[in-house]
Amino acid sequence: MLLATCGKPSAVPVEPLAGEPDIRVGVAVRAGEVRLEGQGEVAATSDGRPAFRLGARSAVSVKADGRAVVVAGTASGRFESLTFVSLSNARHLELDGKPFRGVIEVYALDGQVMAVNQLSLDAYVAGVVVAEMGNRAANEEAALRAQAVVSRTYALANRGKFGAQGYDVGATVTDQAYGGVGAETGQGWAAVRATAGMVITYDGEIISPFYHSTCGSATASPEESFRTGRATPYLRSVSDRHGAGFYCDISPRFRWTVTWDGPQLADILRRTLPRVVGVEGSVVDAVRDLRVQRTGPSRRITELRIKVGSGDIPVYGPDIRGVLAQPDGRILGSTAFEVATNHGADGNVQRVTVSGAGWGHGVGMCQWGAVGRARAGQDFGEILTTYFPGTRIEKLY
Fold first, then answer.
1. Are 391 and 156 within 8 A, CB to CB?
2. H-run or E-run covering 305
3. What is the rounded CA–CA span in Å between residue 100 and residue 245?
């Protein structure tokens, strides 16, 4: 989960809900075209009025034309917007071949197609839990329950995040990975039902939770990892130590290394520095040195200095992973790493190796740590209140 690409959402007070709310998920955002069909019969409405019906496995393609959407296929026409609903509870709508519960609304925005899946909150969470955590063993169920509560909390805290575009949250790791019906499992639904209506709260408000794959030894504070991060009482650095090891040392990304030769790193920096920090790539004639200047409470790097011919280029915590792209183009796994450099006779860096710990931004719940804690017998409440200190688990519906 990437998260934190937008500002902190407005505080949401803890108030009991009359029933389970709905959530609007942007499942296709600014697409050129989408394809809708039903496993059974489907009704399409426009502005509350019947538009057309589709038989089972009859499909339509929808494109944008100005402020309207244009339909081609079994049905055709031009509409301000369309809302598709399956007429059979046992059959689902499919968007670009993926099945979804609830209804799908399609409309135009800035000349592109938007498709929004509106469904009950817990059905949404069921499409997130296993997509985020994977299938887990029986002794790891508490980790899935913790994920269900975190994902529900995130959804409620972020309702209206993209309100100007007509939806609440996206369907990718920028918010949470949501796979619709295809990502649901019996195990995931069991975690959702066991925690129905439960959210994480702090001081009378629903928290804005974060989570990541692997902390590597300790979680991070927001100031270490996010460009606009600020101290938050329930997002402090938390140790993942367990006896002689760590709860998340079962992760395949617990430790890692990346190596560049000097010319390769210089070439990467010429591409990444302009995009990530706005520094002209031409200043990188060669890399003279790579130096850790400052670290934060979790020992993640908060300032890295890259020495080139014209001087030092400071790169700060949130940007380090993007600037030090791996040779295959992916961002660096985390900012918790040590640097080893070899220099040539000309003083330039000949080889750089970083030895890293963990994977992701490091803030909030460590997913592999949650799995390790579940194996150790912790329940989902203990897992969550450890990673989010001072919080409570409350049932809203």
1. no
2. strand 301-308
3. 41
Residue 230 has a pLDDT of: 84
291: which strand partners?
305
pLDDT at 5: 37
The pair of three-digit structure tokens given for residue 221, joined into one six-digit string = 């504070």
Query: Residue 112 has what pLDDT?
Result: 97
pLDDT digit string (tens) for 294-333? 999 999 999 999 999 999 999 999 899 999 999 999 999 9
Backbone angles phi, psi at 57, to 5 degrees: 65, 20
Tell me the per-residue pLDDT of 221-261, one tens digit each, with 9 for 90 and over. Answer: 999 999 887 889 999 999 999 999 999 999 999 999 999 99
Q: What is the Rg, in whole angstroms, of the alpha carbon atoms belonging to the chain?
A: 24
CA angle, 180 then 5 then 323, to 5°: 115
Element (H, E) at 357: strand 349-357
3-state secondary structure of 47: coil
List all residues 6 or more positions away from 30 whose beta carbon is below 8 Å from its beta carbon.
Answer: 109, 110, 112, 113, 114
Extract the residue ranges of the chain whose pLDDT is less than 70. 1-10
pLDDT at 9: 54
For the chain, what percentages of helix, strand and coil (3-state, to nearest 5) are there? 25, 35, 40
Which strands form 392-395's sheet, in the order they lie side by side? 12-13, 205-206, 198-202, 392-395
Instruction: Supply the pLDDT for residue 7.
Output: 40
- Neighbour order of strands in the sheet with 93-95: 77-79, 68-73, 59-65, 33-38, 93-95, 98-100
Residue 99 has which token pair?
A: 């099945």
Q: Quick one: which of 387, 302, 313 has its CA closest to 336?
A: 302
Q: What is the pLDDT of residue 8?
A: 45
CB 183 within 8 A of CB 127: yes
DSSP string, 83-121: EEEES-TTS-EEETTEEESSEEEEEEETTEEEEEEEEEH
Distance of CA 128 to the CA centre of its chain: 10
Contact indicator for 182, 99 with CB cutoff of 8 Å: yes
Going by C-alpha positions, the residue among 42, 211, 192, 66 that lies closest to residue 127 is 192
Q: Which residues contact 119 (CB under 8 A, 6 or more apart)?
A: 22, 23, 25, 100, 101, 102, 103
pTM value > 0.90: yes
- Residue 366 near residue 214, CB atoms below 8 Å: yes
In 3D space, the residue among 292, 309, 310 whose CA is nearest the CA of residue 301 turns out to be: 292
Q: Residue 109 and residue 160: Cα distance in Å, rounded?
A: 17
